[in-house]
Design brief:
There is one protein chain. The protein has ten helices and 18 strands. With 342 residues, the chain is an alpha+beta fold. The chain folds into three domains: 10-75, no CATH class; 79-222, 2-Layer Sandwich (Nucleotidyltransferase, domain 5); 239-334, Ribosomal protein L30/S12 (60s Ribosomal Protein L30, Chain: A), CATH 3.30.1330. It has a five-stranded mixed beta sheet with strand order 7-6-5-10-11, with helices on both faces. A four-stranded mixed beta sheet has the order 12-18-13-17, sandwiched between helices. A three-stranded antiparallel beta sheet has the order 15-14-16. β1 (27-32) and β2 (38-43) form a beta hairpin.
């Protein structure tokens, strides 16, 4: 803050506000101006704005710097976790590293099959075995089966409404395998396609939201990496890559999907008329006679994607390393693909 050319009172004001915070989040995002604006957002996720190895923290003055938040919104989808506990079913929403339980999500489930006034049919004994009594026993079994079906169908309807209300992208089931798979069989196809994994029950009933998050986090990470690797495999077959190729195709309107690394470190040149190129050689070829300005690639990618109608995706971890080493730092998928001839 002190290294920037800021209004005189701004840096002390921001530092004072930050001093009052007891750190409880992984990242804090601050927006402030020299009037009355002071907004601080606490996020439980990492953003590509801190490089501890080089003692770098991203600080900007001028146009609101929202690029890191674009990263986060793209990278982290919304998950719903359904915990099939013996005593009570629970539903949790998970987004941007934070988990919350939806209170009494399954409170109104029918309980016909467990009514206290239900009288079980008479039992008789034969050769040391307990046998259910004739037609009355068969009727009781049919009643239980019908009640169970109503129970699961009702819960499936409740879950469908929860997914819509909370804009859930992916589902995870927790509980005994036979229970979770049985319940899944009652879901409509659209919901079954959102299930990304299963986790066993936790040792104690009614676990905390933090314990649930710790259990499902590896499932989410594994699914994310698998999706990113599959995308890179598709690009290897039919896509485009390297920074100069992708920048050219993107600004020609040829790409519908742009894939970038989680930490974009490259610098590029922006010509006076707005074209973005990789280096001076490209500037001479595509922007002859124009003045150029060096800009960080991460600062111009979101605007380029929006301006040319491409969806921006970010990859991290092993997928990020592969994008950098195998694809030269940027990749994309074309709007129109050539049909391979036999």
């Amino acid at each position: 803050l002190k290294g920037l050319d800021l209004p005189r009172e701004l840096a002390p004001k921001v530092i004072k506000e930050l001093d009052l915070i007891i750190p409880a989040a992984r990242t804090y995002v601050v927006f402030a101006d020299n009037n009355d604006l002071m907004k601080i957002y606490a996020l439980q996720v990492d953003l590509p704005v801190v490089d501890l190895a080089h003692s770098r923290i991203e600080v900007r003055w001028g146009k609101p710097y929202v690029f890191p938040l674009v990263y986060a919104i793209d990278e982290y989808s919304r998950q719903g976790v359904v915990l099939l506990d013996k005593a009570k079913w629970h539903f949790y929403t998970l987004h941007l590293g934070e988990i919350h339980e939806v209170a009494d999500a399954f409170l109104d489930i029918p309980r016909d099959h467990s009514r206290k006034d239900e009288k079980r049919p008479a039992m008789r004994f034969e050769q040391g075995l307990v046998l259910r009594g004739g037609a009355e026993g068969d009727h009781f079994e049919r009643h239980i089966e019908a009640s169970v079906q109503r129970f699961y169908k009702h819960n499936a309807s409740v879950l469908e409404k929860l997914v819509a209300a909370w804009h859930i992208d992916e589902l995870i089931f927790m509980g005994p395998n036979e229970d979770t798979r049985f319940f899944e069989s009652y879901l409509p196809k659209a919901l079954r396609q959102r299930v990304i994994g299963y986790a066993p029950s936790l040792p104690k009933p009614a676990p905390s939201a933090g314990e649930v998050l710790q259990k499902v986090a590896p499932i989410i990470e594994e699914k994310m990496q698998a999706t990113e690797q599959a995308l890179l495999d598709e690009i290897r077959d039919v896509g485009r890559w390297t920074i100069p190729t992708v920048l050219n195709d993107l600004q020609m309107g040829r790409l519908h999907l742009l894939v970038a690394p989680w930490k974009v470190e490259s610098d590029v040149l922006r010509c006076a008329r707005g074209l973005v190129v990789e280096d001076q050689a490209a500037a001479k070829a595509y922007c002859p006679g124009q003045a150029t300005q060096e800009v960080a690639l991460r600062d111009v990618l979101p605007d380029l994607a929006v301006a040319h109608g491409a969806r921006l995706e970010f990859v991290h971890g092993e997928s990020e390393s592969r994008l950098l080493n195998e694809f030269g730092g940027l990749a994309g998928l074309s709007r129109w693909r050539r049909v391979k001839e036999d």
